[in-house]
Design goal:
Thrombin, subunit H; seven-stranded mixed sheet; single chain; 296 residues; mainly beta; 9% helix; six-stranded antiparallel beta barrel; 4 helices
Length: 296
Amino acid sequence: MYGNRPKKHTALMSLAAFALAACDSGGGSSDSPAAPVTPAADSTGTSSRQFGTPTRTQIRPGVEISSRNGSCTSNFLYAENSVTVYIGVAAHCFSEDTNSGIDPCNTRNEAIGFAGITIENASRPGTLAYSSWSAMQQRGETPGSDVCTLNDFALVQIHPDDLANIHPAAIGFGGPVALFTGLAAVGDTVYSYGQSAAHGGVNDLEEKRGRITRIVAGGLGYRISTDSAGLPGDSGSAVLHQDGRALAVLSDVGVGVGLAPVSNGVVNLERALDYAKSGGFVSAATGLLTWDEFSP
């Protein structure tokens, strides 16, 4: 385990559902935060940056993101430059129409610039910088299309006052060592971490291990089966490939019944980032912040 929370014990829950994992209505081993260093994006969309030992009180992949729409779990950190740094989450975390049955290309969403966002371990509110649901509406995507259904990704800008207290190491497992490019294969192992209050702070429920069971819509997304349910509040969380690369973002959940495996829908992160950049919604210089240590 990499920077997880203290273990607790609680009863397991059995649920049967299929819905967006949204919107429920920091682990580490040191106490010395590292100062940020100017990132440089490479051709894979990865930014190189130096960090010290991750701490329990830093802004990291896996911290909770909350607003008037509820709470979600963050995925990874991204930087455009030394003062413009984002934390990723799911777009549906910032829509009042989440779970209403309304197509994402028709939903009401928080406006870009919305500043009522609380980031766990941050001293200042975050600001919504990008929402794929808003971007798709601006581009006139067709409701019901694969892209409208599957593209569920948002970026929240971290206030400059908090940039000395960030770290890219994912809670639970470490990494990401890089951005995953191309398509993963059915059967590949994946790892994730979610902060739903329904997990009761139990590490064995928050930390998920599983496998890819299906490639969806030519690679816009994947279905994965995991050993622990993704629950409301887990959405937006990071999905790491077996080699430690950042693969995807948790979007929806389908909880197994009895001994049936848990099924989750995840968004291909490379495709989600490319959509944001190619449409001019996010600077092409924006890259993933990485951490070389990966210990699943």
